[in-house]
Amino acid sequence: MKSGDVITSLNGKPLNSFAELRSRIATTEPGTKVKLGLLRNGKPLEVEVTLDTSTSSSASAEMIAPALQGATLSDGQLKDGTKGIRIDNVEKSSPAAQAGLHKDDVIIGVNRDRVNSIAEMRKVLEAKPSIIALQVVRGNESIYLLLR
User: Which of 102, 115, 123, 128 is the most exposed place for a label (fewest CB within 10 A)?
Assistant: First the structure.
C-alpha cells in the first residue's frame, strides 16, 4: 500500500466507512491474509496483505450484531484457559445491558456454536439470525442469554 491509496473493499465486500473497515479488521484473526480493494490515482487495484499479529483484538459489539450495541468486546479467556470473548464494558441502558450482559462476562458460545474469538463470533453471526443465543460464563456460572 502507498500513501494516498483509498481502501474500497475487504475480501471483495464493499466498505461504507472507516469504522466498518476498523471493525472488520478487528474481528479478523491476526496473521490472516486479506484482499483489499483500492483506488490508487483513480484506478482500481487489489492487493493481498497479512494482518499484523499485533493488531488489536477488540471491537465495538454493535458492528458485529446490533443487539449487542453498548458492549465493548475483546478476545479473552477464563481462568482455566478456555478461550472466549470478554465483555470489557457495557453502557448503562444499552441493548447489551438490557439483554443482561455484564462487564467481565465471557461469551463462549453463540447459537450452539463454540466461539474462541471475536472473529469466530462474527462468522457465526454473518447470517444475521433474528435471535442470538449466547452462552456466557459469569464468575463460576454458565448462563444463557437470548437477544433479539
Answer: 128
pLDDT digits (tens, 9 = 90+) for 112-148: 999 999 888 988 888 888 899 999 999 999 999 998 8
Query: Going by C-beta distance under 8 Å and a sequence separation of 6 or more, which residues neighbour residue 40?
Result: 2, 4, 5, 6
Whole-angstrom Cα distance, residue 5 to residue 41? Answer: 8
Provide the grid cell at 16.
461504507
CATH number of 6-50: 2.30.42.10
Tabulate helix, strand, coil % of the chain (nearest 5): 20, 40, 40
Q: Stretch 97-113: mean pLDDT, rounded?
A: 95
C-alpha cell at 135: 452462552
For the chain, domain boundaries = 6-50, 58-147
Question: Is pLDDT above 60 for 79?
Answer: yes
Question: Is CATH 2.60.40.10 what the domain over 58-147 is classified as, yes or no?
Answer: no
Distances in whole angstroms, Cα of residue 85 to Cα of each of 12, 37, 52, 131:
27, 29, 20, 19
pTM of the model: 0.63
